[in-house]
Design a protein that fits this description.
This protein is of the alpha+beta class. It folds into two domains: about 1-105, Nonspecific Lipid-transfer Protein, Chain A (2-Layer Sandwich), CATH 3.30.1050.10; about 110-195. It has seven helices and five strands. A five-stranded mixed sheet has the order 3-2-1-4-5. The longest helix has about 35 residues, at about 120-155. The chain starts with a helix and ends with a helix.
Amino acid sequence: MLNLLLKLDPVSEIKLKKLQGKSLQVHVKELPWPLLFHFSEKISVLIVLANEPIENDVSCKIELNLATLPKLQDSSKLTQLIQQKKLLLNGDIYVAQCFSSLLQELDIDWEEQLSVYTGDALAHQTFSSVKSAMAQSKDNLEHARTVWAQRLTKDGGLGVIQQELSDFSEEVNYVRSASERLAARLAILEKNNKA
């Protein structure tokens, strides 16, 4: 599947050449086995089972958890993730950066791919309709978010706005200091009455 996607982007072939002859082992801690990517004219993906020996000549080995995986989208953050110990990396960081970049910069003209099967006019109309529907959905979600935020924070609503929270906090502080002053006065009066 990965190789099919790469074929749909003509520029990815050039980027893949940077990785030829290299390999990358990725072990996601939540998975029972690591994945081994071998790079040549295409990418071979192997699952390394527990009883199989892992190659020693792997160019780069990465170990991370699922929560860190989305952060790899920005290859410039690899060093930061390593420093935060969210990503363990042994070997050539350039291999990891190139692979991340290859996947991140994948540019597939889906309209062109659809036009092979449906023709240019229908493909264009389909993508125009999808883009319009997505834009409308985004606008509707934003409008709904605004409406619900207003409903939840107006008088009698479930939520509060920042100013109301600030005012409430000030009032609590005032009542607390007033009660402490009252307690101090009572203590003084009790002391005077006993004397």
